[in-house]
Amino acid sequence: MHPDSAKLLWDAQLAAQKIARFTVGKTFAHYEADELLRAGVERQFEIAGEALNQLSRLDAVTARAISDLPRIVAFRNVLIHGYASVDDRVVWGVVESSLEPLLETLSLLLEAAQ
């Protein structure tokens, strides 16, 4: 593993953990109604996506262990460049279906890096 890979993995993990904390006990209705919550979740997805995008350029072997990495980076690009057309249901769907598996993968990779 490249020496900087662990930092990028940690950055992605921290962002994903923040999303989990921000959304615990929340429903889509809460998410849709709370502008600050939406902004916070989207920003943390941007950070996670950027960290993993950099990881893919720096350490392709480690990046390949993250099965959804291309989708994560693409999602980050939509949030940043397609901000005017972000669909709250899509973002919430990612929170519900993809956040926990990502956290598990990042945790395993960070454990292996130690």
Explain what you see.
The chain contains 6 helices and no strands. It has 114 residues and is an all-alpha fold. It has one domain (5-113). The mean pLDDT is 95.
Total helical segments: 6
Helix content: over 70%
Low-confidence stretches: none
Gyration radius, to the nearest Å?
Answer: 14 Å
Shape: globular
H/E order of the elements? HHHHHH
Structural class: mainly alpha
* Total separate domains: 1
Count of DSSP E strands? 0
- Report how far the terminal alpha carbons are from each other: 10 Å
Mean pLDDT score: 95
What characterizes the major β-sheet?
none
Roughly what fraction of the amino acids lie in strands? under 5%
Summarize the model shown.
81% of the residues lie in helices and 0% in strands.
Which terms would index this structure?
mainly alpha; single chain; 0% strand; 114 residues
